[in-house]
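Q: My labmate handed me this sequence with no annotations at all. I'd like to see what the chain might look like in three dimensions before we decide whether it's worth expressing. Could you predict it?
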Amino acid sequence: MKSRKYQEIHDALASEIQKGVYDADGTLPGENVIAGRFSTARETVRKALAMLAHEGFVTRKMGAGTYVAKRARRRTGEFGLLMPDVSSARIFRDFVTEIRRLARRNGYEVVVDEFMEESAEAAAVRVRRIARGMVVRNVEGVVFRPFVDERLADANMEVVRIFKNAGMPVVLLDADVVESPKRSECDLVAIDNVSAGRRVAEHLIARGYRRIAFLMQGGAFRSNINWRNRFFGVAGESALRGITEAVTPLYFEPGDIARLRRLCRSRFRPQAIVCGNDETAVLLMESLRTLGKRIPHDIAVVGFDDVDIAACTVPALTTVRQPSRDIARAALRTLLGRIARPNDDPREVLVNAPLVVRSST
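A: Here is what I predict for the chain of 361 residues:
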C-alpha cells in the first residue's frame, strides 16, 4: 500500500504543478500538511517529493522547504520547432511531417517556425523574437536547428539562452552552437559527419580514385563545422588506407571557372571532388561541364544531404543522405527524455547516414 500511496501523492502534486496551482519558484505545502491531506506518514511524503525532485518538478532545500522548479511548467501539449534557415527545408524535407506525426502519437502538437531573411542582421533579430514568442506561448520544449552561417553564431547562443532562462528543454538539431570539440549543455541529434566522410572516402578509393579534394566553400552555403567534420572523415579514412596524396581542401566558389581551370591544369589535378552539400556539388558539375570535363570519367563528384535535385542531375549525384525520419524519431525521443529527466547529463545522439551511390562516381 505504501508504494501506491507515494505514487498517488507524486501524481497528484505533479499534475497540480503542471496546471499552475503553485507559483513557479514558490513553495509547496510542508511535509506535515501534505501528510495530513493524504492521510499518510511523512516518510511516504518524502518518497513522493524525492521522485518529483529527480524528475525536475521541484527542488528541495534543507531547512527551507520544497520549491517548484522553473522547469515544472504548466502543460500546454505543444513543442516548438525552430528552423531559421532555408537550407533546413531542403535538407530535412520529411523531418517536419514525421516529427508532427510522432508528436501527435505522444499527445503533442508542434509549433513550427521556418524562415529565411535576406541579411544576417535581420535573421538574428527575427529568430530572437520567435524564441521569445515560444517562451510566451509556454511550449514544453524546443527542437532548434541552429543557423549554419557562422556570422550568426551569437544569435544561436542567444536563442539557447532565451530558452534555458525560461527553463525550457532544448534539443539541437544537426549542429551544436559551440565549435567542436567543445559541447554545449544542450542535447544534440545529428548525423555522424566524420563517419559519413569516411564512407565517402572508402567508396572513392574502392573505385580507384586516389587524388581527392574537398570543396570547402559553396556560395551562400559557406563551410561550417559539419563540413569540416566531413572533410576530417574523408581525409582520415584516406590516410588510414595508405593514400599517399593528402586530401586537399579547396577554398573557392563552385562557379569560379578560372580557379577551377587552374586546378584542373595543376600538378595535383583531383580525380574526385567531395562537396559540403548537394547544392555546391550541382554548381560544381555545371562548371566542370563548361570546361569540357566529363563526370565521372575526368572528375568524380560527391555531395551531401541527398536533396531532391541530387537524383535529377545529369549525371545523377552520389551523395550522403540525411535520414530525416530517423532524425525526427531520435529528436522526439531525446526531447521527451529531457522533459522527463531534466537533470540528466547532455546527450549526443548520432544517426547513421547512408551513402547513396549514383552515376557521378
